[in-house]
Amino acid sequence: MAWKIGEVLPIIKQNVVDLIPEEELIEKLKKKDKIIVKYGADPSRPDLHLGHYVCLKKLKDLQDLGFSIVFIVGDFTAMIGDPTGRSKTRPRLTEEEVKENSRTYFEQVFKVLDREKTIVRYNSEWLARLTAKDIIEISSTYTVARMLERDDFAKRYKENIPISIHEFLYPIFQGYDSYAVHADIEVGGTDQVFNFLVAREIQKHFGEEPQVILTVPLLEGTDGKLKMSKSYDNYIGLTEKPEDIYGKVMSIPDTLIYKYYKLVLYYDDESLKKVESFIREDPRGAKAKLAYEIVKLLHSEEDAKRAEEHFNRVFREKKIPDNIPEFELPKEGLNIVEILYRSGLVTSKSEARRLINQRAVKLNGEPVTNIDTVLKRDGEKVLKVGKRKFLKLR
RNA sequence: GGAGGGGUACCCAAGCGGCCAAAGGGGCCAGACUGUAAAUCUGGUGGCUCAGCCUUCGCAGGUUCGAAUCCUGCCCCCUCCA
Q: Closest by alpha carbon to A239, among A54, A52, A47?
């Protein structure tokens, strides 16, 4: 199969930050029939979010072009813990945890990628078999000085924050993965550039043609500051409920709207121009459209409609949502604090008291001000805590 | 191996015998204002049978009427020297 460079290249380059080196990619396209694209996944975080989506979407583009996608589950490296972007050593995972996590991973991945055309490998397949001798050989390809060039290591080193030896092994092993699957291209977020570069060295060391590096932008999370990540709790999960996705998108700062249109919805330049003026004229509307489209993308049009209605009803009209948990009061009645605690709306009774004192607890719209309030069973009532927690009392 | 510095709540960080459930900042939660945006202002941020009590300042002991604060041992981190 011959690739038509002129047609293929623009598709490859859409929403890509780095393509290093581009010439090598063109060379590969010219002489190879089969292009192997590597993507490594860390099974320590089994919940995929929109940040991953940006990457998966890129892989899908490449898959549609006819490239072979090799999906590597880093079951072995997860036991090390990727130090990328970390200011601390990560906790290492046990074998059981890794196994458990990777199981849920793929149903999310294959929402985007074509299951039939994707090759799945586990890096323990080859890494677990390495001998101490092998490891010495592989690690000799890189130097401490070069390792310390890496941003996060440099920073930690400078600030006297510990770096364990095994963390140096992470990029090395990840690089070995590239050699093991004979990767032509590796795709990942921009924070992976360093690791990908190490891989090139290792491939060369073993006499292989180095991979081309292709990185996509990192997507900021709902806080608008940090990259989307489960550990920062600013993520929008791919499998979250439609209403939650909609709501979370609505809570992103305005400055992020454009980026989401571009990276998640994959609007082309022409459409993005329209989005730009849309945002300028009606930021709320632009965001609502974005939320709608993202729910549609991850669920369905139906779900998007429902999520939008739900949102408007609860947050614009301040009405009660239709689907809320119920709580049955005992005949003799129950203290308000107990109700909040037992129903799980709050995590402790102290929290319940605090919220009541802050007028955050409302019964049928009226603030409850007395923590000794006892509610009896007399018809349906709705309890609201904060902005978004509801409970139907019966 | 030697010398020195350090481990405090979600994070950073003050406190160095009682006035410490522990200053300050960040984050987060809630209230006001809003577009579940931003900005701003206010309050909160261990638990409980809540004007009191219980658990918390690396871990385990000890001194003391009383310890985050003093002593001993242990674990961990950093720096310099070797």
A: A47
